[in-house]
Amino acid sequence: MLKLFDRAKDFGTRKALVSNNTEYTYNELIASAEAVAANLLSDTVDLKEARITFLVPPSFEYTAIQWGIWKAGGIAVPLCVLHPLPSIEYVLEDTQAEIVIAHEDYVNFLRPLEAALGISVVPMEAMFAENNSNLPDLSPDRRAMILYTSGTTSKPKGVVTTHANIEAQITALVQAWEWEKDDYILNILPLHHVHGIINVMSCALWSGACCEFLPKFNDEKVWEIICSGRLTLFMAVPTIYYKLIAFWDHASDGERKKMSEAASKLRLMVSGSAALPVPVLEKWRTISGQTLLERYGMTEIGMGLSNSYRGERRPGHVGLPLPTVEMRLVDQENNPVGANEPGEFQIKGPSVFKEYWQKPDATAKAFTKDGWFITGDIGMLNDGLYKILGRDSVDIIKSGGYKISALEIEDVLRKHEEIADCAVVGLPDEEWGEVIAACLVPSGEAIKTDVLNTWLKTQMPGYKIPRKYIMQRELPRNVLGKVTKNEVKKLF
Q1: How many domains, the chain?
Q2: Are 52 and 63 in contact (CB under 8 A)?
Q3: Which residues contact 186 (CB under 8 A, 6 or more apart)?
Q4: Residue 273 lies in a domain
Q5: What is the CATH classification number for the domain harbouring 61?
Q6: Which of 138, 172, 205 is the C-terminal boundary of a domain?
Q7: Distance CA 48, CA 466 (A)
Q8: 49, 15 contact by CB (below 8 A)
Q9: Contacts of 59 (CB under 8 A, 6+ apart)
Q10: Residue 425 — φ and ψ, nearest 5°?
């Protein structure tokens, strides 16, 4: 039996999940997961790592299905409820799954794939029919889950994690962020991604805590839940904090005071999945007294680095390696770089994924000969804490012999009072290699770029100032709120 399930039995009658205005105990979660497992097994004794895909919104049912797949010996492949049919078809084909478990809202949406792929669409309710079965013994080195990368540079790859990988990812965060059984967290994140699955839901369930689902983000509803006083932790992506700030800005003085007081009482608030603009961090601190804890992670490693729970949380930095995580910064020849020198993050440890699904060449390329995972992210050690400079293929602009961080330029641009948001990219150029281009979201009227450039010259060296600008009402983003830089480039 896996440790996650052993621990759940110990928590028995404690409240585990709140979903669709209903409370569920750990015992109820275990019973439902075992019914799902029995229905999946049917006449077999072990799914033997069969890939089971499921399209279910964040809910009690989602969790029970994930646990049921694991208990039956299968590999859980959660699908994104916001993805179009071709994206889902790609995952089903790539995993060679034979069934997809579907919430009633998505059964008809998925029906065309039955004929196209020869796959069975199974209504979610059928999985919860009363059923019992002997469940297989599971070893921690079994494959447990496949999550798909965002595919910003090529087709998405299936990232395979074992039960041991998942346990390592959970326990590192539980230790670093001091989770306890009396914690209560709101989950407003999509559950096809490590942030929502591991950092929020799984850490809560490992700890005997409670996770409440809000399947669709609503700024007023989130503030209402914060003001209820039941939360002890809150985790979100930067765009959610941006929207919560905007809601607070438009509230009355009395409502603002109530919201600020409630937010100040949480023991921890975390931001991740995309770079947190320093102005957003500072505004949130003004509103709530909370300094958002930033951390660094990715699908392949879970979380790798984190600012301190009890110590310094420095804006624009991601702290130090988490427990059990080994990290190094290296140059292009894999030689270690010194302090204040940019290098690539490479990670080792039990939380690092097993492989890319059925892509042995891509898996081999992802690791150095001595076993370090190559993240592709560039950063530096700055006065004792690590800082992300950007992704080598997206955020590092190579212009006129300089390597320039797009994230650094974005931080400066956001300080300007007429800029609500921005994205900086490099565009191919014969003379310079790449030129810096900025997509701006004005806070009011269109921005005069000549006036902006004059101001920028007082803020940073001339070679970092954008050569091209466009204005947009909003930036293109993926379902996690991360700006899709390749789509920004297309706008130019």
Answers
A1: 2
A2: no
A3: 211, 212, 214, 222, 225, 231, 234
A4: no
A5: 3.40.50.980
A6: 138
A7: 54
A8: no
A9: 19, 20, 213, 215
A10: -135, 165
Q: What are phi and psi of 88, to 5 degrees?
A: -70, -40
Rounded distance between C-alpha atoms, residue 432 and residue 404, angstroms: 13
Let me know if residue 361 belongs to a domain: no
Rounded Cα–Cα distance for residues 349 and 367 (Å): 12
Residue 391 lies in a domain: no
Is residue 31 a contact partner of residue 99, using CB atoms and an 8 Å limit?
Answer: no
Query: Among the three residues 78, 113, 138, which one is the final residue of a domain in this structure?
Result: 138
Using left for φ > 0, alpha for ψ between -120 and 50, and beta otherwise, residue 384 falls in left
Among 198, 207, 406, 393, smallest CA distance to 300 is for 198
Looking up tokens 């004792």 gives 384
Torsion of CA 250, 252, 258, 263, to 10 degrees: 10
For residue 380, give the nearest of 370, 371, 372, 390 by alpha carbon.
Answer: 390
283-340 pLDDT per residue, tens: 999 999 999 999 999 999 999 999 999 999 998 899 999 999 999 999 989 999 998 8
Q: Which domain holds residue 30?
A: 3-138
Q: Where are the beta strands (DSSP E) in 127-232?
A: 143-148, 158-162, 184-187, 210-213
Cα–Cα distance measured from residue 415 to residue 406, given in angstroms and rounded to the nearest whole number: 15
Beta bridge partners of 146: 160
Would you say how long the chain is, in residues?
Answer: 492
pLDDT per residue rounded down to tens, the chain (492 residues): 799 999 999 999 999 999 999 999 999 999 999 999 999 999 899 999 999 999 999 999 999 999 999 999 999 999 999 888 988 999 999 999 999 999 999 999 999 999 999 999 999 999 999 999 999 999 999 999 999 986 544 578 999 999 999 999 999 999 999 999 999 999 999 999 999 999 999 999 999 999 999 988 999 999 999 999 999 999 998 889 989 999 999 999 999 999 999 999 999 999 998 778 888 899 999 999 999 999 999 999 999 999 999 999 998 899 999 999 999 999 989 999 998 899 999 999 999 999 999 999 999 999 999 999 999 999 999 999 999 888 777 888 888 777 788 988 998 999 999 999 999 999 988 778 889 999 999 998 889 999 999 999 998 888 899 999 999 999 998 877 889 998 999 999
Do the domain assignments include residue 134? yes
The CATH number covering residue 400 comes to: 3.30.300.30
Answer whether 30's CB lies under 8 Å from 5's CB. Answer: yes
* Direct distance between the N- and C-terminal alpha carbons of the chain, in angstroms, rounded to an integer: 54
